[in-house]
Amino acid sequence: MGLNVVVLDPAHGGVDLGARGTEGIRESEVVLQFASQVKRALEAQGFQVILTREGNDNPSFDDRSARANAQRGAVFVTLHISSTGLPGTARTYVMPDFPPSNDISGLIPWDRAQAPFTALSHKLGDLVQTELAKRFKGSPATAQVAPVRQLRTTAAPAIAVEVSSVSVENRTDLDRMIPGVAEAVAQGVAAFRPSYVLPALPGSAPGQGGQP
Amino acid sequence: MNLTWRTWLVIVLIIAVAGAALYFPALRRQVYKAKDITEKTAEQARRELLPPAPVTSGDPKVKAKMYWGSRSQSGQLEPVTVELPLSSDPVLRSKQILNTLLAGPVDPEARTLPPDAAMLAFYLLPDGTAIADFSEALANSIPSGIESEQLAVDSITRTLAANIPQAKQLKILIHGQEVDTLAGHLDLTQPFDVTLEGMSEPRSGVSIITAPIQKAIDKVKDATKR
After folding, report:
1. CB 3.0 to 4.6 Å from B212: which of A165, A196, B63, B109, for a disulfide?
2. Minimal Cα distance from A122: which residue of B?
3. A127: CB partners within 8 A, 6+ apart
4. What is the reported pTM?
């Protein structure tokens, strides 16, 4: 059994509108449309996709992470639209390395859940970013590192994809990016699939394909 | 009740109504005045109690490096050398440095922090942990997004790293409180390393090109007004 589930997180929602543009563009609404097409592209690659929200609600960071943490063999992708950045570009972010817990019980503490997965997240982030860079000129070639709150509590390979930006003058400029982002995420996750060797027991440290 | 008593009762009532007509407008003015005073926010009160770090003419002028946004590579930081009279005391010096960073560069487009944000307090612990407490404007006025929030934090940590060797890590508070994120993305529950080897450097060395942050700050304000 290998990687077969993708937990897709359209960020913000409810009273949290996220980034807002002067043309009335709201991040919380646009990411739902991105998520819908990314879901279809991932399903076409044979993945089961779980959305953290499908309507205008706002689950907590922990509730969103819990959707991934309850799965075995899942990856987590959170989708964002930025306030800044060259319009028409996209970036992938992964958590910086941080030491795992010294807890002798072997359990992963919730607030450091990402720690054992950072190497895998970097690999997934680079694969997705490579695909984004092919489609969106001006995007960086590899994943960026940033302490994104949503990723910290996620016990799975986890990335944030941020598209620029809500400051576009016309909403259709963002809409035109949706198919490219969807394809890039799906291709990147599919390329990552052989790299992810599931731990023998739930909660134990993950492994990487081709590595001892 | 005879006629005399009725007359007296009417006179007393007229006097009472006339007195109330004079007294209540004065009372209303007093209430409005008191309301204005109590509406002053706790943050304003703190700002008044905590005067900005003094830059005294007695301090020697020192070349300090401030990390503001790059104009040539937007989305990246660029060191700008400024000459400031700086204290030798690391806490006072940190306050002077960060207040200069908040005041912003000559070119407002190179700003990394909202112009209405203020530093309310700064502490430096013996283990090298710096604690900087900023006003709520830092969280409310900054453009929401991973990139913009990281640029803001990196500009603070790098400026401290370049000028305050005693500072090893930085904990950011908002209005005296630990908060989950800066503006919905960047994790503020953990301290940041104070280093010039910034995490935002693309690992491949490729620049990220973004619109100037000042434009985004203005747009946040416009969008909030709607």
Report:
1. B109
2. B203
3. A188, A189, A191, A192
4. 0.81
